Amino acid sequence: MNAPIQEAPISAPRQSTAREFVAILFRRRALILGLFSITTATVLVLALTTPTEFISAGRVLVKRGAKESLLSPSTRMTGDWEEDMGSEVEVVKSHPVLQRATEILKQEAGAGRSSPRVDLKSVDVEVTGRTNVVAIGYVDRDPEVARQVCSAVVRAYVEFREADYRLVYPSNFFEGEMKQAQKDLDYWIEMRRSFSNTSGVVDLEHQKSSYIDQQGVLRQRKDEVEADLAEANMMLQKTTELRDRQNIDLPTFTSLYSNETALVDIKKRVVDQELVVAKLRETLRDDSPEVLAAMTTLDTLRTMMRREVDARVAMSKARVDVLNARLAVVQRDINEIDRMLAEMPDKERTLAEMDHKIDMLKARYSEMSTNSDEALITQNTTPSRSVVLLSDAGPATPRNARDYVRLALAPVFSVVVGVGLAFFVDGLDLTVRTPNHAEEAIDLPVLATLTERKRRRRGSRELTLETPAA
Q1: How far is the CA of 119 from the CAs of 56, 124, 145, 254, 328, in angstroms?
Q2: Cβ neighbours of residue 323 under 8 Å, at least 6 residues apart?
Q3: Exposed, middle or buried, 322 (CB in 10 Å: 0-12/13-18/19+)?
Q4: Rounded to an integer, what distance in angstroms lies between the CA atom of residue 103 and that of residue 84?
Q5: Which of 109, 107, 112, 111 is nearest to 144 (CA)?
Q6: Among 1-15, 60-74, 155-169, 306-320, which range has the highest average pLDDT?
Q7: Are the beta carbons of 222 and 330 closer than 8 angstroms?
Q8: Is residue 219 domain-shared with residue 304, that is, in the same domain?
Q9: How does pLDDT run across 97-148, given as a tens digit for each residue?
Q10: Does a structural domain hold residue 355?
Q11: Which domain holds residue 32?
Q12: Do residues 284 and 313 both lie within one domain?
């Protein structure tokens, strides 16, 4: 029978010594020193080449919303918070604001002196939290320049926003509109006055009523004159007919004439003379002197009466002519009144249009005057500031000052990283260099190492060489 194989006892794993750790560091010294050197050189280069910059900052409070008009002190919101504040950040960096900041710096520097230049890349703007506060900063190598430029940018932004928000009283607009309205009003008032003078219109309604009353009076007068004229024509006609009749000795209408005494006397004398002639013819011959004398007297009286009758006919004709003239005058007056009444609608329409334009211009002038007063009152009583300066640009502070403690920490950390990296790289190396590596590779305990024997031999050799010398 075969004897049982006895397994070798498993010894406890050997612990790494400090010498081994030191050996690893010594073997990987190039890696550690290289990383340390690169890190130190990089930190030194960055620290020495990076210039120190200073930043000065100021804060402003933005009142959101836009003013509607000078006639109303209320404001309206234009967007949400993110949109409004984002727009404000861009407004600070806009060309008009930076141009105004440049002008402010030139004014502060004075004539003949150079002023700092405003660089857009050096302007730093940010919104403070969820507020309407905007922080405005400026970065420069010179702390005084940073403070001056930052103050100029803050002032330029405040002026820009106030000018953009404030609605300036438009004096030119109101003065121009009121002057034009007054000019048009004077023109139409003069046109109405000229039209009234040329057309004879003062009070249209009163004149129209007066014309209608005159028209009625004239028509009544015309009727009366026409009646008298008809009567006079008839009288002339009848008188002429009666005059031409031989059997009528007195062709007249005594009721129409106030003085008929002469004609009646002549008629009476004719009748008396006819009686005398008749009596003489009864006793005397027709050719007797007495009869002839009486006949001659009778003819004379008849001639006189005929002449009086003709005078009455002429008077009747004259009366007809007078009545015709009166009728023509009355008719002319009636025609004139009718013409004036016919022109009244056109005059009324023209005057109504003129009065309407005059009333509109008066209302416009009054409205412009009222709006001008309201705009001026609103401008002087309503706060026009949309940006409040919370703090002006303060003293500039270093933005990237050299912190030597932090500069020293970088090489220290590089050493730590280099040590860790050295152990990591050494762990990836499969070369057997230590007793621990040998025990792990062959799974047997290590009794001695060549390194220790070489060290002992080197020590004894050194001791032998030192003894003869002694």
Answers
A1: 14, 11, 12, 128, 102
A2: 225, 228, 229, 232
A3: middle
A4: 27
A5: 109
A6: 306-320
A7: yes
A8: yes
A9: 888 888 888 888 887 788 888 888 888 888 888 888 889 989 888 888 888 8
A10: no
A11: 17-49+408-428
A12: yes
Kindly report the pTM of this predicted structure: 0.43
Q: Are residues 124 and 224 in the same domain?
A: no
- For Cα atoms 42, 46, 51, give the angle at the middle one, nearest 5 degrees: 170
Q: Are residues 421 and 435 in the same domain?
A: no
From its phi and psi, is residue 194 left (phi > 0), alpha (psi between -120 and 50) or beta?
alpha
What tens digit of pLDDT does each residue of 402-436 get? Answer: 666 666 777 788 888 888 887 777 766 656 556 66
Structure tokens at 386: 């949309």
For residues 91 and 78, what is the distance between their CA atoms, to the nearest angstrom?
15
* pLDDT recorded at residue 254: 47
Angle made by CA atoms 284, 285, 286, in degrees to the nearest 5 = 120
State the Cα–Cα distance between residues 405 and 130, nearest whole angstrom. Answer: 35
Alpha carbon distance 139, 47 (integer Å): 18
421-424: long-range contacts, CB 8 A cutoff, minimum separation 24: 421/28, 421/31, 421/32, 421/35, 422/24, 422/25, 422/27, 422/28, 422/31, 422/32, 423/24, 423/28
